[in-house]
Amino acid sequence: MRTDRELTPAELDAFGAELDALRERTLADLGAADARYIRRVRAAVRLCCTAGRVLLMFGWFPPTWLLGTLLLGLGKILENMELGHNVMHGQYDWMNDPELNGQRYEWDIVGPADFWRHTHNHLHHTYTNVIGRDDDIGYGLLRLFPEQRWKPFYRRQVLWATLQALLFQYAVAVQHVKLDKYFKGRISKDEVRPLQRQMNGKIVRQWAKDYLFFPLLALLIGANALAVLTGNLVANLLRNLWTFAVIFCGHFTEKAAVFPAEVLENESRGHWYLRQLRGSSNLEGGPLFHILTGNLSHQIEHHLYPDIPARRYAEMAREVRQIAARYGQEYNTGRMSRQIATVFRRIWVYRKPQAV
Amino acid sequence: MPSFVFSSAGWLQPLRLLVAHGWLREAGVDAWLGALRADWRLNRTFARVHSLRWVAADMLALRLKANRNWPGARPGQAVLVYGERDGVRLARCYSLTAVRGRVLELAIKRQPGGRFADKLIDTLLPGDVLELGAPSGELEWPRDADSGVLLLAAGSGITALYGLLREALAKGCKQPVWLLHSVRRREQRAFVPELQALMARHPNLRVQWLITGEPAGEGELHGRLGAEHLRDLPAHSLLACGPHGFVQKALSLWSAEPRAGTAQWEAFSPPPAQVAGAGQAVRLEFARSGLRAEGDDQRSLLEQAEARGLKPKHGCRQGICTECTCQLLEGRVRDLRSGRETSEPGQPIRICVSAPLSDVRIDL
Ligand code: FES
């Protein structure tokens, strides 16, 4: 359990001011290096995807097929996490580059970018870990905290979690369509239909690219279409599993806290910061690991500063840690293997009603 | 906005359709096109620098060839030229001095503190590629000007008027034309040999220079623009181009006498410096909704838009979620959280935490 000290309103204000100061200092320092970095990430995405797709054209020959699939998966992971997710947060809006504009960027997964900007940027980042307001707590499928009311449905949640991991990009897309609310009769068909149409359109486009165009291209040049199709499937699967793992480690670890809806009433900036700190958890690892997680391994910093370029989180983390220590707040971090084990434990334990 | 220009390379058309319907992403296609040839893009206008030449001590003229996305323009109009500084994309407006199909000429003047122009002037080489924005500007050669045209330019204001003048003379304009270019130092007179050649060829043209900051040379005028410089001029139409103060002076001098013609002008000035949040009234323009309104510099643009009955998209209202982001087209805004100011045209701003500091136009 967490061992946080409760803060007085005055302390909260000072805590918020210190975090604000760090934010301003970092913002003032943004410049050419950050612009160069994100463009390099984009170039790496293009290089990985192109190289992967070319290698897949050599058919089932294991060295090329495996490397091709891995490269394509790597490209997709980078695009999804370090490029797409971060750009869509508006982290690079200050560059004024229309190609890296947070409102216009469309990423390479089946969930339409507009959906994500709403459910993630708005709901999840504003109401982080507030029960009933932040749909990301268990995504409506899982009970991860004793504070969530138990339903018989949760008994099988190990299965639900597995499915979600395998099909993560679809889970992200569906979340916004609010099918659960529709089935419970809380919203009407008319509300759901346009969203569903938008989602179907995006799914068709993604499938057409990965599962139709490139296999057909393979057929056309006399390569093995099935090898290409399978390579694409596996690459998408790899990306699903990886993003699932990283994102679940962000808020559902052992020491992640949840909050009742009352905290939102007249919440001060300091308390908003405090909630982000207590509700998020970090992962430790080397520079490449951080990039592959889209720097969501610095989930705490990402939640304190969602609109600051993620490559800055590592250096900000040092100071955030000191500030947290000074105010007696725990700083939830650990290796991925340990953190994810605690997530799995939650999925296992809270499937039962009496586990509180 | 994608502009589907008719003359565009036909083979790009299918790609444009795929991009327009979300099957391909424009940035990706542009990366491939740009790798094939530096000035190829799907919809954006890029231009290759053909040649460079000094037309005054502090003014460099560029001849450019635009790609096929160029929508066309008239001389006297201006284009945005894009550049980058400290990772930020910036745009500055330059007047076209000549337009022949996709071959354009524009002139860039060094400005005090103008790091954008300085960088272009100091680093551009033939073969470089620049991005251009859509042309804009209303200045036109007066049609009703049988009794003569008066052209008054100050500083870099000469570029727009020189473009218009050259085109009018080439089209056979016979009416008397009098051009006065006001500069601080003699070396700042621009296009001097070109203007002298035009004078030799067209007896109806008279060009004079007004030197404000040092003694004038032979045949030149001295001092600030005043009534004595314009006395007894037969010209009935006016085209004036320069900083705010100059244009205002020109207009008041021109209208002091009864004239039959029209007056057109274009004024440029550095954005007015204002005290942050001094409680002043500002003019707001919401471009997409076509709404203009009076506003203040205290409340966020989101609140003020809502108070005018608009329903801008938004989420958290505290600057976190970016749902309310929209483009600043013109003017200066202040971030209510940090006090940071922005005045870059095209910059995405979060209207829930931005208050206007001057008159602003936003893409809402
Ligand atoms: S409404 Fe969320 S950033 Fe403006």
Automatic annotation (TrEMBL), chain A:
Keyword Lipoprotein appears in the UniProt entry: no
- Coiled coil ranges (UniProt) are none
Please name the InterPro entries in this protein's record: FA_desaturase_dom, Fatty_acid_desaturase
Query: Which key words are in the record?
Result: Membrane, Transmembrane, Transmembrane helix
**One Gene Ontology cellular component annotation held by this UniProt entry:** membrane
Domain of life, per UniProt, equals Bacteria
GO BP annotations listed = lipid metabolic process
- A GO molecular-function term, please? oxidoreductase activity, acting on paired donors, with oxidation of a pair of donors resulting in the reduction of molecular oxygen to two molecules of water
Specify the Fatty acid desaturase domain's residue ranges. Answer: 64-333
What sections of the protein cross the membrane? 212-235
This one is known as Linoleoyl-CoA desaturase
Question: Which source organism does the UniProt entry give?
Answer: Pseudomonas flexibilis
TrEMBL record, chain B:
Every 2Fe-2S ferredoxin-type domain range = 280-364
Q: Which GO terms describe its molecular function?
A: iron-sulfur cluster binding; oxidoreductase activity
Q: What is this protein called?
A: Ferredoxin-NADP reductase
What Pfam families does this protein map onto?
A: FAD_binding_6, Fer2, NAD_binding_1
What region holds the FAD-binding FR-type domain? Answer: 42-142
